[in-house]
Amino acid sequence: xxxxxxxxxGTFHEPIFENEAHLSPVEFGALKILVYKCGSLNWLVDDxxxxxxxxxxxxxxxxxxxxxxxxxxxxxxxxxxxxxECLFLHASTGYPEQDFVQPTTLGSDFDWKSFFHxxxxxxxxxxxxxxxxxxxxxxxxxxxxxxxxxxPDLDKRPRNVNxxxxxxxxxxxxxxxxxxxxxxxxxxxxxxxxx
Amino acid sequence: MSTSSxxxxxxxxxLELPPEVLLEIVNSVHEISQSRITGYxxxxxxxxxxxxxxxxxLSEVSRxxxxxxxxxxxxxxVHLFDLEYxxxxxxxxxxxFRQLNGSMRCMEICLNREEDWPIYENFLHxxxxxxxxxxxxxxxxxxxDQADLLSDAIKGFQGTSLHITCRWDSPFNKFxxxxxxxxxxxxxxxxGTRINDISGDDDYNKLPxxxxxxxxxxxxxxxxxxEQARHVKLLMREAPITQFEIEYATLPKCELxxxxxxxxxxxxxxxxxxxxxxxxxxxxxxxxxxxQNSLGGGTSVLGLRFTNFKFG
Lengths: 195, 312
Hints:
Mean pLDDT of chain B: 71
Mean pLDDT of chain A: 75
Order of helices and strands of chain A: HEHHEHEEEEEEH
Number of strands of chain B: 11
Structural class of chain B: alpha/beta
Largest sheet of chain A: 5 strands, mixed
Helix content of chain B: 25-40%
Number of strands of chain A: 8
Distance between the termini of chain B: 38 Å
Low-confidence stretches of chain B: 1-9, 36-54, 82-88, 94-100, 299-312
Number of domains of chain A: 1
Largest interface: A-B, 55 and 44 residues
Strand order of the largest sheet of chain A: 1-2-4-5-8
Radius of gyration of chain B: 23 Å
Number of helices of chain B: 10
Largest sheet of chain B: 7 strands, parallel
Strand order of the largest sheet of chain B: 3-4-5-7-9-10-11
Oligomer: heterodimer
């Protein structure tokens, strides 16, 4: 196993793919959907290490940067599998403090605005040299709590932001109707997904 | 299959009995089977509780009648137990007891109980639409002769799915090569799978090719993840995989807690590297990628709490 150093702004597996040419991302032309299961959605709302949103450091100490961003992880994962159109976060529950209670809704207090803002800031953060985002849909939820999703608002011009010594484009987002979310999922997961 | 071929004539005679009599036989077999496992040493018990050489041993009679009942679909539910009193497998027939249209989705194969293998042929005869064979964890075949025997016993399998949690060594490899692998479209490698005796790079070429494999699911086990991942990568060769699903046993931990070169992180990276290399090879067919738990790894303590959640 090679000695490895993690990049301050990266995730655990980024160094592998940056340093090993034979593993450089290739085009997954047939890929319809990426599914990532997670327990709760709340910790993604509170993600303090997402790109361009918060300063990337530990709030509780002066220790070096860490990898506590689920959004950064998802963004780097997506790079490996582009140009897949759809990313689905399958949540087992909306309430991490109630492991054994399966709610039927996420609750009116769930901070969708921060959640989607974090998602867009990470997943639709593009190099200006590219022709815009290839990820079309981010969908979240499950059969019990329902589905919500966002897509990049391609009618608006992206914002150029300097972050971490690079200029990046950030695309705004718009919500997808729940019925359409379900339709997008069923099209791609028909006969495969039972959740 | 030795049991049925020796008793074929007897089977015909028994079938002439009225159904209610046959039902009595079933009940008796079941009761005896239940009582025998509570005996001090069941193999020494005979029908009349004496060591009379003229009598069959109870296990022999019981096995014969059991095979008969299965062959004619004369059961509602069958439980088989091993000597540790654990229910091992269950088949369900029709509520009317006598028919052939019961269903069996998955048949569990116990590799270390050779005496049970003949019954698999019967079950596959009664349930030709059995979809999956499952190979139990912690077991394997002794040698190539056993591989031949077992492949004979399940030669009637027409399904498309294999669930493997047993030790995957040379005899098991040989056994697999006897199956019609071109029919297999779904392969589930679960956490009990150990790769033995096929550890060298050259030997991996001996692994079977699954030319029709579409769905591959991999649940890794903590101590064997890298070997398992290499194995899974090689199983993707020449396979038109459309769906890949992974669940990691070991996930990275945050740098603040363990550092980037902590064993957990390195093991995760090794697995990640192998799997991604394999997936690159199927990039033109892969349609669905499902990650069961890595979103929690190295990203959130809360996420880690759910790493063992099973979907569905």
